[in-house]
């Protein structure tokens, strides 16, 4: 099992900002999963991979694929307190779910 977090590389987020957005996405998608999935994922080490994509539309397209696959997922919009304008779409998390299911959505992306 794993979770893939896709962060926008085109925004030029600083390392701290990127880490915060990835954390928000991870937790939000975790909360979208059912109890059985959450428990199983926690029991096998909570594997995560951080991937990069460019552009808001890419994240929405991936979220649509995750929805069609029935996978937990979450789109993150920044509050706008620091580096970005309020509402800027920064990240997407897909999973936790079985590796092959997550890869159906995010398997073509590069590591961040």
From TrEMBL:
Similarity remark: Belongs to the PTH2 family.
InterPro entries: Pep_tRNA_hydro_II_dom_sf, Pept_tRNA_hydro_arch, PTH2
This protein's name: Peptidyl-tRNA hydrolase
Pfam families: PTH2
This protein's record includes keyword Cytoplasm: yes
Encoding gene, per UniProt annotation: pth2
Assigned keywords, A-Z: Cytoplasm, Hydrolase
Enzyme class: hydrolase
Protein task: The natural substrate for this enzyme may be peptidyl-tRNAs which drop off the ribosome during protein synthesis.
GO molecular function, one term: peptidyl-tRNA hydrolase activity
Upper lineage: Archaea, Methanobacteriati, Methanobacteriota, Stenosarchaea group, Halobacteria
């Amino acid at each position: 099992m794993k979770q893939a977090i896709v962060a926008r590389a085109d925004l030029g987020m600083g390392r701290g900002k990127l880490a915060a957005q990835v954390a928000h996405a991870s937790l939000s998608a975790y909360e979208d999963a059912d109890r059985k999935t959450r428990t199983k994922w926690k029991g096998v080490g909570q594997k995560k991979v951080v991937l990069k994509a460019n552009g808001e539309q890419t994240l929405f397209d991936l979220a649509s694929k995750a929805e069609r696959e029935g996978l937990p997922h979450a789109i993150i919009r920044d509050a706008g307190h620091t580096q970005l304008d309020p509402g800027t779409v920064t990240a997407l998390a897909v999973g936790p779910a079985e590796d092959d299911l997550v890869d159906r959505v995010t398997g073509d992306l590069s590591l961040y």
